[in-house]
Amino acid sequence: MIFLVDASVYVFRAYYSVLPDMRDEDGNPVHAVFGFARFIGDLIERMRPRYLAVAFDQRRDDSYRSRIYPPYKANRERAPQDLVVQFERCREVCRALGLAVFVDPDYEADDLIGSLAQQMRARGVGAAFISRDKDLAQLMRDGDLFWDFGFREQFGYHDIERHYGVRPERFADYLALTGDDVDNIPGVPGIGHHTAASLMRAFASLDELYADLPRVAALRLRGARSLAQRLSAHREHVFRSRQLTRIACDLQLDAAEESLRRRRPDLTALGGLYDRLGFGPFLRRQGERLAQLPA
C-alpha cells in the first residue's frame, strides 16, 4: 500500500494549532514546520509504510481549474506570507526524511495524489489517502483507506457510501450537484446533500441522469417535478462544476515505483535543517529512530 499525504491540510493545521513563538535563526516563524514535521514523523513511526509520497498545493490564479471557471476558490483568503515561506521548509523536511515530494503549479495536490494512486493501482498497489478533504473520497477503491491521521475514524471503500450516502465512483458528480462553498463551486439551487445522494443512487452518473431527466419527476423525492426542471435549466453549469470537482488522475508524473519507496532519513541534511530552524532535540531523536526503521 502507498501512503499518499495531502500535505497542505496538515501544514495549515499545524499553523493554527502550534504556538507561533518558534523562530528560525533569521527570526522567521517556523511553528507550522515543527508541527508538520512531527506529524509526518509520527505517521512513519506508527505505520512504517513501504511507499509514501507527499503532495503539496501551490496556488496560482491561472491554474487548470481557474481557467475553466475564474471564480474558482476566489472566495478564499490568501495564505499568510509567513506560512507561504514555511511550506517550502516543510518540503525540505520531507526530502531530508527520504520521502518523495510532489508539487505542481497547474494542478492541485488532489490531482497529484489521484494520478499517483492510479499509477500504483496499475501495479497492484492499493492506496491510503491521508487527508481530511472529502473530495479525495472519489479516489477510493476496494482495499483502499481514507484516514485523517491523528483521528481514530478510518474509512474503507464501503464506508464512504455509508457515511456520505454516495459511492466513491459517483462522488464527483454528487459534488457537482450540491456545489462546494469552500471552493466556490456552484451547484444546482435547492439541491442539498440528501437530494444529490438520492439522485446518485438512482442514476449511475450525471450523464445517465441527463439522458433520462423525465424519470427524475417520477422519483419519490419531494418536489421531484420541479427538480427535473431545475436540473434541466442548470445543465451547463452542472457539467462545468464536474470538471472542477473531478480529480485528474492522468497526469504524467515522474514516479517510478522505486522512487516512491520510503528511504532512510539523511540525518546530516536533517540535522543541518533543524539547526537553521532552531529545533531542539525532540525531532532529532525522532529522525534517529526513523533511520533505524527498515526502508
Order of H and E elements: EHHEHHEHEEEHHHHHHHH
Low-confidence stretches: none
Strand content: 5-15%
Structural class assignment? alpha/beta
| Number of contiguous helices | 13
Write a structural description.
This protein is an alpha/beta fold. The chain has 2 domains: 2-160 and 248-292, Rossmann fold; 168-245, DNA polymerase, domain 1, CATH 1.10.150. Helix content is 47%, strand content 8%. It has helices at residues 7-17, 31-47, 64-68, 81-96, 109-122, 157-164, 171-178, 193-202, 206-211, 224-233, 235-245, 267-277, 281-292; strands spanning 2-6, 51-56, 100-103, 127-130, 145-147, 154-155. Strands 3-2-1-4-5-6 form a 6-stranded mixed β-sheet, sandwiched between helices. The radius of gyration is 21 Å and the shape is elongated.
Q: Notable features of this structure?
A:
2 domains; 13 helices; 295 residues; Rossmann fold; DNA polymerase, domain 1; alpha/beta; elongated; 6-stranded mixed sheet
Topology:
Blueprint: E1 2-6, H1 7-17, H2 31-47, E2 51-56, H3 64-68, H4 81-96, E3 100-103, H5 109-122, E4 127-130, E5 145-147, E6 154-155, H6 157-164, H7 171-178, H8 193-202, H9 206-211, H10 224-233, H11 235-245, H12 267-277, H13 281-292
Parallel strand pairs: 1-2, 1-4, 2-3, 4-5
Antiparallel strand pairs: 5-6
Helix pairs in contact: 1-2, 1-4, 2-4, 2-13, 7-8, 7-11, 12-13
